[in-house]
């Protein structure tokens, strides 16, 4: 199966470079481009991509707002943020809006290709240290947000969520808790369902937003 990709970036050179890298892969195809956030929504409606590579800083409509709009569509694509600076607050806001992960524009081509495949398969591209740093940069006055379902997590599900915020895989969580990977997979599924999270990234963001774990 060929994965369909749309690139949204206001720099022509960046779009051209990403297209060359992705189109060189037999299982990837760039089916559309957008030079600003407002243009990406109609492109996605028309082309129905699996993944959108989204710049966060664009004219007309930034990547955060564009991500929010995309996720209101029926069968929305996965959104992978592409940014220049990993400490950009826009990245954290894009993740809060529903993006499945982020990459730096200086990322190696092989890593970019693998990231698109992972996100399309429903995996999260999670950089726990970077997300923790971004969460910690939020204003001290920021009060915890009520996240429906957080208070319904069992003790073991809470343990799993804490380990997810550290970026541990199911295999690593199983080793840490001395349980089977199948058990961990069940707990992760329960955590996502109770929090209404699309993926692990959204669950981790919810953990920070609610105060369930502290970035400090």
Q: Would you mind describing this structure in some detail?
A:
It is a single chain. The protein has 216 residues and is an alpha/beta fold. 49% of the residues lie in helices and 13% in strands. The protein is built from ten helices and five strands; from the N terminus they run E-H-E-H-E-H-E-H-E-H-H-H-H-H-H. It has helices at residues 12-23, 37-47, 63-70, 89-97, 109-120, 128-136, 155-165, 170-177, 181-195, 200-210, and strands at residues 3-8, 28-34, 51-55, 78-83, 101-104. A five-stranded parallel beta sheet has the order 2-1-3-4-5, sandwiched between helices. Helix 2 (37-47) runs parallel beside helix 3 (63-70), helix 3 (63-70) packs parallel to helix 4 (89-97) and helix 9 (181-195) packs across helix 10. The protein is globular.
Strand elements, count:
5
Order of helices and strands: EHEHEHEHEHHHHHH
Task: Using the CA coordinates, give the radius of gyration.
Answer: 17 Å
Mean pLDDT: 89
Helical content stands at 40-55%
Strand order of the largest sheet: 2-1-3-4-5
Percentage beta strand: 5-15%
Low-confidence stretches: none
Structural class: alpha/beta
Shape: globular
Q: Total helix count?
A: 10
Give the termini separation: 43 Å
Strand count, sense and barrel status of the largest sheet are:
5 strands, parallel
């Amino acid at each position: 199966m060929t994965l369909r990709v749309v690139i949204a970036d206001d720099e022509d050179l960046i779009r051209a470079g990403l297209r060359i890298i992705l189109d060189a892969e037999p299982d990837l195809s760039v089916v559309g481009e957008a030079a600003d956030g407002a243009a990406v929504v109609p492109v996605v409606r028309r082309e129905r991509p699996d993944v959108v590579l989204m710049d966060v800083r664009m004219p007309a409509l930034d990547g955060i707002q564009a991500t929010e709009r995309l996720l209101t569509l029926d069968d929305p694509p996965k959104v992978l943020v592409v940014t220049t600076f990993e400490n950009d607050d826009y990245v954290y806001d894009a993740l809060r809006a529903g993006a499945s992960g982020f990459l730096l524009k200086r990322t190696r081509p092989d890593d970019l290709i693998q990231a698109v495949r992972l996100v399309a398969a429903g995996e999260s591209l999670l950089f726990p240290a970077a997300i923790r740093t971004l969460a910690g940069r939020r204003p001290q006055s920021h009060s915890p947000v009520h996240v429906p379902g957080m208070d319904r997590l069992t003790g073991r599900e809470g343990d799993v969520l804490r380990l997810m915020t550290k970026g541990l895989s199911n295999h690593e969580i199983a080793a840490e808790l001395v349980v089977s990977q199948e058990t961990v997979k069940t707990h992760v599924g329960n955590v996502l369902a109770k929090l209404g999270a699309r993926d692990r990234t959204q669950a981790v963001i919810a953990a920070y937003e609610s105060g369930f774990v502290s970035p400090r």
